[in-house]
Amino acid sequence: MRVRLALLAALLFPFLLSMPPAHAATGLHVSGTRILEANGNAFVMRGTSHAHTWYATQTGSFADIKSLGANTVRVVLSGGRWTANGAADVANVVSLCKQNKLICVLENHDTTGYGEQSGAYTLDQAVDYWIGVKSAIVGQEDYVVLNIGNEPFGNNATTPGWTQATSAAITRLRSNGFQHLIMVDAPNWGQDWNFTMRDNAATVAAADPQRNTVFSVHMYGVFDTAAEITSYLQAFQTAGLPLVIGEFGFNHSDGNPDEDTIMAQAQARGVGYLGWSWSGNGGGVEYLDQVTNFNVANLTTWGQRLFNGANGIAQTSVEATIYGGTGTPDTEAPTRPGTPAASDITSTGARLSWTASTDDRAVTGYDVFRGTAKLGSSATNSIALTGLTAQTAYTVTVVARDAAGNTSAASAATTFTTTSTPPDGCTSTYRTTNHWQGGFQGEVTVSCTAAVTNWRTVLTYPSGVNISQAWSSILSATPPVFTFANAAWNGSVPAGGSTTFGFIGTWSGTGAPPAPTVSWT
């Protein structure tokens, strides 16, 4: 990720260069401006970066990223500038990518800001790292892209420096037997504001004997207008050279990138993009976290935009055919969820559960609506709603969604009513004192730690239960809800005191009677 200010010095001008045809390649490879799989199917990256080198225990992130529809994950690795990721660790990363049907872009972060940031590695040192972990990635060309080094030059990069170092790194990787699709980052902290990569990409591409190199630009504050974004992308397409947006965000300390145009133009042009980053950002750019504390259920504003917004990952991502993807967008909606059932109703919350939907690929989540207002989302077929208003009727439906953003028909509606907040320190405790075939006797004890002068308790039973006789209380019944108010003589309960009422009920089942939900009103 870019961490320094860079100003765009001039407008971006398209240019025209001719390139020889791509050589035959193993696995993922480039053809003109496109990335293809080994079978010739076009592959467009849609995903995010995961800072594995700093959060090596967060291996569940791979499945979480996939669950939101991504087809690619860019994995941050280190050869020693930070805790090194050795061959065994890299092999496990590749395995996690494959298990979760993600194309794996492996990047060495040690090179970030070379020439401007203390401790940064050279691209030649990055190649040393790749040679050291070669055993983990050789033979994985269908699944792995090798991103030689992240943002390998700061803002003091010269044209010969980046061009020569990048060309030499590619040549050395090929001479050491690497057959992978290679990704190279731009200088200027990845943003190429002085156009070194744009103007010399053809030279670097020609240095690859396999003609299998894709270029990566990072779009932050330098790319804050539609004109700048469009011109830069057009320059590579005019030149017939492959480009991906290897990082971008919705905000940055060096300016406000135009993420809407970035995503729309990438989709219109078939250009891959990878947002920065899943979770764990620091140094003042925590706002670039897409989920909070690696929790896939807690998407941030940026995460919602990237995964679920217009031209976002869920809407545009297509799984690689190497994993069985069809190579075509998913247009089939999930089936309608079952009618939700409400339980554990309180003054501020309730639990809903429903029969799960099915989908031709995968259901990725559910949204619960009250009219058009979304009350909550869940990755499973149940949810605990919170923040509700006391003594309020809620009529709710559930809608299922898949990774492509297709949504099901709304479920049938369920209505429940939240309870009132009980007096401070009062509780109602229910027990079944006796039962027989088709009938039972129940008892409720009202206990208070502070004095009250009246009380009312609500029992909500499943369908089929009826209560017709009560004592030590006044019963009002609208099955399955039964409300018991105090009698004239037992409404006052002293602090630390209690009172008890009872009733006779009937039900259509066998065995022990069902327990009610107990609440106050």
What does this protein look like?
The chain has 521 residues and is of the alpha/beta class. Helix content is 19%, strand content 28%. The protein has helices spanning 61-67, 87-99, 123-132, 134-137, 159-175, 196-207, 226-239, 259-269, 301-308, 313-316; strands at 29-31, 34-36, 46-50, 72-77, 103-108, 144-147, 181-185, 213-219, 243-248, 272-275, 341-343, 350-353, 363-370, 373-378, 382-385, 393-402, 414-417, 426-436, 439-448, 456-460, 466-471, 473-478, 481-486, 498-506, 517-520. The strands form six sheets. The chain has an eight-stranded parallel β-barrel, surrounded by six helices. A four-stranded antiparallel β-sheet has the order 14-13-16-17, with no helix packed on it. A four-stranded antiparallel β-sheet has the order 18-19-24-21, with no helix packed on it. α5 (159-175) runs parallel beside α6 (196-207).
